[in-house]
DNA sequence: GCCAACGTTGGC
DNA sequence: GCCAACGTTGGC
């Protein structure tokens, strides 16, 4: 079981939208590194939901409910089905993540433009702890 | 095959 | 609104 972080601009699709829908197909990702990660996902993996731009916070936890499917006009991109697990009691801001030395190696920090990134188990646990 | 130009993302 | 980082495109 693997851990991930997936970004969305709340003005485009927010945590509230995900709760309202009860789950969604995470599609529209057009970046090769992100595609490789989407392809590596398996049902049961969990992902942090990060709201970029105006929020800049991790706000909840999602579960991957299936494997990647073809996306885009020629089917060469990848989409995965996700469902919400639970919100964090308090959002973990980007500023808080940057202020924590143990999280300095997170892909979120290292490559800020990557919209789908792996999360190490230690990082996962720490972010959840910070969100209590 | 290199690299400049351009477009997009996303933090500040 | 600005700009850095990164990806892509296209001329040569």
Automatic annotation (TrEMBL):
It comes from the Bacteria. Residues 2-130 form the EVE domain. SUPFAM superfamilies: PUA domain-like. Pfam families: EVE. InterPro entries: 5hmC_binding (IPR052181), EVE_domain (IPR002740), PUA-like_sf (IPR015947), THYN1-like_EVE (IPR047197). This is EVE domain-containing protein.
